[in-house]
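Training component of the fellowship. As part of building independent skills, the fellow (R.M.) carried out the full modelling exercise for a liganded target. The chosen ligand was iron/sulfur cluster. The inputs are recorded below so that the supervisory panel can assess the work.
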Amino acid sequence: MIIVSSCLAGMKVRYNGTACLDETIQKLLDNNQAVAVCPELLGGFSTPREPAEMVGGDGDAVLDGTAKVIDRLGNDVTGMYIQGAYEALEQARRVEATIVVLKENSPSCGSSMIYNGTFTGLKIPGQGVTSALLRRSGIEVISEEQLASRLKELDSL
Ligand code: SF4
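Fellow's submitted model of the complex:
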């Protein structure tokens, strides 16, 4: 089973109430090969919500307690991001997920790029809180940008 970010499955769960449907992910869902998860909703957020970015490091640093997740109003929402990450991990374990495909750039779901904490649209290398926790737990995390090539690799095994 594959876990995917809910927003990539077309669900309007992003901070601004939009989705970003990925057609390959739609096919996986249609074929019952994927389950959609939104770590931020699992962490207790609703939609719409203030955007948030990590300050002081990426998801690894947040898990280590050396960085925080701050929303655009300046509220410290670190605890909800960590909670959402653990809930997503629980779901991944429950369905015995082999791969998790998460939305790039998100402070929860980013797997190789994140925003730099200044709310200016600038990105830096790094991963979100959920991606970091899943990887620490031995689960493969990729972005939607890597999905097509990863599926080809799996087909050729
Ligand atoms: Fe999409 Fe992940 Fe953000 Fe939820 S937390 S809206 S699944 S990127």
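The panel noted the following from the submitted structure. Residues 78-94 form the longest helix (17 residues). DSSP finds six helices and eight strands in the chain.
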